[in-house]
Amino acid sequence: MPVIRTPKAHRTIGEPFEGQRLRTEVREIAKAHQGKDLELRNAVVAYLKGAMQQARAEAERLLKEDGCGRCCAMRLSAFQDAMIASAYEVATTILYPADNPSRSERMAISAVGGYGRGMLAPGSDTDILFVLPYKQTAWGESVAEAILYILWDLGLKVGHATRSVDECLRQARADFTIRTSILEARFLAGDKALFHDLEVRFDKEVVEGTAAEFVAAKMAEREERLRRAGQSRYLVEPNVKDSKGGLRDLHTLFWIAKYVYRVQTTSQLVAKDVFTREEARLFTRCEDFLWSVRCHLHFLTGRAEDRLSFDVQREMAQRLGYTEHPGQKDVERFMKHYFLVAKDVGDLTAILSAALEEHQAKPVPGLRGMVERLRPGHHRKAPLKDSPDFILDHDRLNVADAEAFKRDPVNLIRIFHVADKRNLALHPDAMRLMARSLPLIDAKLRDSLEANRLFLEVLASRNAPETVLRRMNEAGVLGRFLPEFGKIVAMMQFNMYHHYTVDEHLLRCIGILSEIEHKSNPENGLANELMASVKNRNMVYVAMLLHDIAKGRPEDHSTAGARIARRLCPRLGMTPVETETVAWLVEQHLVMSTVAQSRDLSDRKTIENFAAVVQSLERLKLLTIITTADIRAVGPGTWNSWKAQLLRTLYYETEPVLTGGFSEVDRGKRVIAAQGQLRHALTDWPAEKVETYLARHYPSYWLRLDLEAKLRHARFIDATEAAGESIATQITMEPGRGVTALTVLAPDHPKLLSIIAGACAAAGANIMDAHISTTTDGLALDTIAIRRAFERDDDEERRAGRVREAVEQALKGEVRLPEVMARKLPKGRRTFSLEPEVTVNNSWSNRHTVVEVSGLDRPGLLFALTNTLSRLNLNIASAHVATFGERAVDVFYVTDLMGAKITGAARQSAIRRALVAVFEGAMDDEDAPRRAARA
Q1: pLDDT of 399-437, one tens digit each?
Q2: 52, 96, 447, 504: which has the fewest C-beta neighbours closer than 10 Å?
Q3: H helix intervals, 633-732
Q4: In angstroms, how far is CA 492 from the centroid of its own chain?
């Protein structure tokens, strides 16, 4: 990874715009236009604007040259200082000179907020405070106004306030935001004695004796910020400024340190025994890296953009000098470095927290949250009877002395075991010592029977395994004890499907697995029922931890992960049979999700093929549990009742095949039970009407949907037929999934799905999923999940209404879809690139040819695919539509127009070419499929 260098010396703003020269030039320009205020201001602004453009270009050039983010921010800040000082000089010596100034005609201009730190990003606001000795005067008002007009004319975003010293102090006492801005105030121009008076009085009258309340306010402010930005520091599109582990966390750290310890620089915290020299250097390195990223991001986007979104990450990686390695893209290496820095920021936060506790200025964090505030004299330290190397320190687990790990390296694992058993948080001092003791984790410790026994008990704990493993990961112990895990720490995958880094995903999987075992969340569905009957729970936890451990390698991660499992499981004390089962689960951990979401579960061949892979009922149980946890841990909104029902259906369809035809709940009984549930719910319908309705659906319908959806469909169909309509649509809001469900009832015909997909795309709706059903009397009942566009339900309902109208118009033939889509579909640069894959397979179904299409998703893709299949004279019997981030995986069960499979090699090749051409944008006219077929 590139090293962000910090030069020992650097030019502040670069020739030819040093501060003194800039002020001299502005002074000469102002004198030349003296007496003509408007011309003077225009001339000064024109000069400063050109100077600013050159200075920023020079700052960007130097940033690319030396890679020093802090230097870039300081250069930009210094240039801003020079401009404001020049504007002040023009205002006070030429525009509004005070020939015989009174004591009230004095002013000090100070930089506050982020600008007060002397570092500024290219798109940052310029926050300044005009300090007055008493109340505002006409002179002070004129000077401030003149300076502000110059800065506004330069196009700067200026945050400003004008206050007397007394006002500053009064407002700082009442408002912690103002208090923080004054804490960072830095003199720019004017009366230095006046600014010094503010500094001295602020320290004495506001800061002194209020450290505890300031720390509490800043920590509460941080919690609220992280709640808005996302609590995890491992979100794959982080905000460089506001996300956990970002610049704002570093700033909060320094605000607190400055306030509590009365220091001006990070290095002074070493003298106060808060940081070691290495930790102080780490603070500077983190700050430098984050400033480098932020400045590059502002230069790249041309605005104050602090979010590292997918569409800029690749270019950012290239600007910062990252290169591609086997198995890892340049952008993934850049983001891994980013997350490692974010982790270092978290470590520094913990170190400062420990120091503050000794100062009695901060609440003590427990294992699961914040508890009572420290009281004077509350410094209880008690040894643990059964673990003499550890003590209780402020109700948290700490080491008895600095030699605890060196004396017995197994203690590096044992401390987490004790923390888990006793439900204790780990003291930051212990975490700090662990970080320095990582070299003790060597081959001998990794092979230790005791260490591996303790680790397995932590991993499969019935208490809070995710919490303890997370601490183990933060300390660096987990990655050293399991080197394979160390390789995926902070590793991101450059796609829209995964919300977290690989290690964060695995830890969340363990947390959800524990949740399944405790049956604390009914959303886990069938997995909750199965976990209690699993014969060996340790195997589930080990497989869960290892299922993605081989990500980032050139080969398939499932295959490589199985190989790692076969090597690691014996080390953890597992038998050969257990080892082979774990390896199989790792190798096949994606198969159940793939089959459930992209295959026709009513097709007997699908179930037989899946059963052939699974081979035993116990493996089926384990795979169901792991699949549930894996999907749920991907990110918010990924898991839903639809997917839960698909997994349940696949499980119960496969179970009798694996048990030789015997099942506690066989297919027929489950259909009857599902019909009975609906019969019981439709109490307001006559019995005869209910029985007629039940006969309208095939068995597969009853097994794929939950009761709520079936009840909604029944009332929807009944209302449509009562109104005498042949075509109808219905909208269902599902904010928890982040989608809106559009249900369409219409006479079935081969192009129906294509028309619905095209109308949705033309209306700007992005299809995320689709459930296709046909009734026994020839009606199609299709439910399309479209990505939600608005947070507020009323806004989303209005937008969904437009989508409904578009679909109904298209189905009634009132619009020509190709023309509408050509006009409305967006065109532009794509952030991701994926090689399209098309598989035409006759072994996955006894009655149909299965066409699986995978590639980069885009608006209108489903319409283009289904339209192409129709033009190729293929009949779509069923479709299974799924989106995994930017990747669309669509599976179509097709026949020719005579109802036969597609067996000819030439015809299959033509289908592949035509569908690949859709992704390449070649399907814009009616003759394109025929041209592809002839190719």
Answers
A1: 999 999 999 999 999 999 999 999 998 988 898 899 899
A2: 447
A3: 641-658, 667-681, 687-694, 699-704, 707-722
A4: 10
Three-state secondary structure along 751-764? CHHHHHHHHHHHCC
Separation between Cα atoms, residue 800 and residue 798, nearest integer Å: 5
Q: Where are the domains of the chain?
A: 19-208, 228-362, 726-825, 830-935
CB count in 10 Å sphere of residue 723: 8
Question: Strand 767-774 to strand 779-787: parallel, antiparallel, or no bridges (unpaired)?
Answer: antiparallel
Say how many C-beta atoms besides its own lie within 10 A of residue 630's C-beta.
Answer: 24
CATH hierarchy code of domain 228-362: 1.20.120.330
Look at residues 181, 93, 190 and name the one whose alpha carbon lies nearest to residue 133. 190
- CA dihedral angle for residue 915, residue 919, residue 922, residue 926, rounded to 10 degrees: 50
Cα 126 from Cα 317, distance rounded (Å): 28
The rounded percent of the chain whose pLDDT value lies above 70 is 90
726-825 is classed CATH 3.30.70.260: yes
Give the separation between CA 505 and CA 635, rounded to whole angstroms: 9
Alpha-carbon Rg for the chain in angstroms = 33
Hey, which bits of 691-830 come out as E strands? 728-734, 739-747, 767-774, 779-787
What is the rounded average pLDDT of the residues 33-48?
87
How confident is the model over 779-812, as pLDDT tens digits? Answer: 999 988 888 888 888 888 999 999 999 999 888 8
Q: Do domains 19-208 and 830-935 have the same CATH topology?
A: no
Decide which of 3.40.50.300, 3.30.70.260, 3.40.640.10, 3.30.565.10 is the CATH code for 830-935. 3.30.70.260
pLDDT digits (tens, 9 = 90+) for 911-925: 999 999 998 874 444
For 229-267, write each residue's pLDDT tens digit: 555 666 678 889 988 888 988 888 888 888 888 888 888
Token pair for residue 914? 């035509």
Pick the CATH number of 19-208 from 3.40.50.720, 3.40.190.10, 3.40.50.10170, 3.30.460.10: 3.30.460.10
From residue 618, alpha-carbon distances to 533, 614, 627 in Å are 9, 9, 14
Residue bearing tokens 């309705």? 693
Q: Where are the beta strands (DSSP E) in 338-380?
A: 365-366, 369-370
Q: CA-to-CA distance for 331 and 336, rounded, in angstroms?
A: 9
Torsion angle, alpha carbons of 219, 220, 222, 228, to 10: 160
The confidence score (pLDDT) of residue 858 equals 81
